[in-house]
Amino acid sequence: MHTNFRVKNIETKKFKEQKIRNSQFKLVFNALFDGKYKILTSSTVFRYDLIQKHINLDDYIKFDFPIQDWVTWIQIAKYTKFYHLKLSTVTYRISTDSMTRPSFNEKLLAKFEKEKFMYRYICERFKEDVIYDETRWNDFVHRALMAFSYKNNDFQQANFYARKIQIKTLRAICARNKNLFKIYQFIRKNFS
Question: How many other CB atoms are found less than 10 A from the CB of residue 150?
Answer without folding.
Answer: 22
